[in-house]
Amino acid sequence: IVLNLNTLILSMFLFMVEITLAWTYHYSSVRKNWSDARLYCQTTFTDMVVIQSQEENDYIVSKLPNRTGSPYYWIGITKNHKDDPWTWIGNNSTWIGEKSWATNEPNNEHSTEFCVEIYVNQGENRGKWNDEKCSNKKFPVCFKGE
Fold first, then answer.
1. I want to staple 131 with a disulfide (CB 3.0 to 4.6 A). Which of 22, 29, 97, 106 is the partner?
2. pTM of the complete model
3. Bridge-partner residues for 139, per DSSP?
């Protein structure tokens, strides 16, 4: 009985840890510059989304609406200077998938593209990333920790 009780307690603990580590994704229907988008995510949810794998990237894209004329969403990866590495907010990870960037991206056009959008349009660039000026307005993708 002691072994079964210990197993039960351990199982309950692991279940609680799983719940604690869960999160949900959200997006705004209002376009914002990158800084305002992050502030929106932080005040309304937990923060801007931090993508940790290609599977997560694909899942998020599958849930976002393809908005006619503007199928672009801000994600939580940025840099401060053209020579800096791309870094995810919150965890400072530098994970970049092999297939993450759209063709010929990041290109840092005009040396001022320090934020990243994700495409949700149909076609070869669906789910791909593009470096973009942080002042441009896109829809933010946020997450909420449970």
1. 106
2. 0.82
3. 73
Determine the Cα–Cα distance for residues 118 and 140; give it in Å rounded to an integer.
10
* 8-state DSSP, 38: H
Task: Please tell me the least confidently modeled range out of 36-40, 93-97, 131-135, 142-146.
Answer: 93-97
Task: Go through 2-22 and write b for each residue having 16 or more CB atoms within 10 A of its CB, e for each that does not.
Answer: eeeeeeeeeeeeeeeeeeeee
pLDDT tens for each residue of 19-33: 335 789 999 999 999
Which residue ranges make up each domain of the chain?
A: 23-145
Distance of CA 95 to the CA centre of its chain: 12
| Per-residue tokens: 61 | 């894209």
What backbone torsions phi and psi does residue 117 show, to the nearest 5 degrees? -110, 155
Burial of residue 121, with CB atoms counted within 10 A of its CB: 0-12 exposed, 13-18 middle, 19 or more buried: middle
Class of the 23-145 domain? alpha beta
